[in-house]
Amino acid sequence: MKKLAPSELVLNPDGSVYHLKLKPEHIGQKIIVVGDPGRVALISSYFDTIECKISNREFVTHTGMYNGERVSAIATGIGTDNIDIVLNELDALVNIDLESRTVKTELTSLEIVRIGTCGAMQKDLPVDSFVMSQYGFGMDGLLNFYQFTPDKEEETLLHELMLQTAYSPKITKPYLVKGSSKLIEKLGEGIAKGITATAPGFYGPQGRVLRLALNDGQLNDKFTAFQSEENRVVNFEMETSALYGLSKLLGHEACTLCVIVANRLANEFSKDYHPAMTKLIQLVLARLTSKG
Length: 292
What we know:
CATH architecture: 3-Layer(aba) Sandwich
Number of strands: 13
CATH class: Alpha Beta
Number of helices: 7
Number of domains: 1
Distance between the termini: 40 Å
Radius of gyration: 19 Å
Helix content: 25-40%
Strand content: 25-35%
Largest sheet: 5 strands, mixed, barrel
């Protein structure tokens, strides 16, 4: 079995993975990821017990018990580049023997739920409500570095989305990945669902104009107008496409739920989204650990 070189699987002197600074015993099989490091403590405040708190750079991890299940809350920081780090290192923790530096013969599948904030692209999705990402539309290009083959459903929807929006190759070569059907069913009751456009930035990539002109100033309007059967683009955020793509390739279940903090059509921003975020965290913890 091929041994992974120290330059490829980078470990700290204590044997923990390089960026997350975690060892296999530090994480549960159910993981909640958030962008904001400060949000980890809010999540773990609802744990019945907390086993460990570990931080390195923007990567903060709290692991404990909730409703009889071992759960980890991990801050990824912002962007798909950080998701690349977090997903690969989480997978290494459960599917690579870090001592022998070899891939295990029996692989473990994690359940990974992202709780985030986003901007809505439809008028009927008000600020402080929730939205679930059924698909991630990747404008970031990360998955193009990996050998990813979309299934027929993903391929067809991507083609239709690019056709209707006249998506320009000047921007990026996009991709589209479906989230975990298992987690969408388990967590999604009563929550609006649709396609999430994952952008590689907050300003221009999401159609915001301050002092710089855009390559396609009508792209947001095209996203809002897109319709393919029941599918529509519901929101912008900055992590989901990479989370879905890498999870699918590595054999993990992944799902994103966001609090809408801005409605781009109504030009509204939440006056205080923190109560809605607290409610979403409680909902995800309850549904993720439910035995039903």
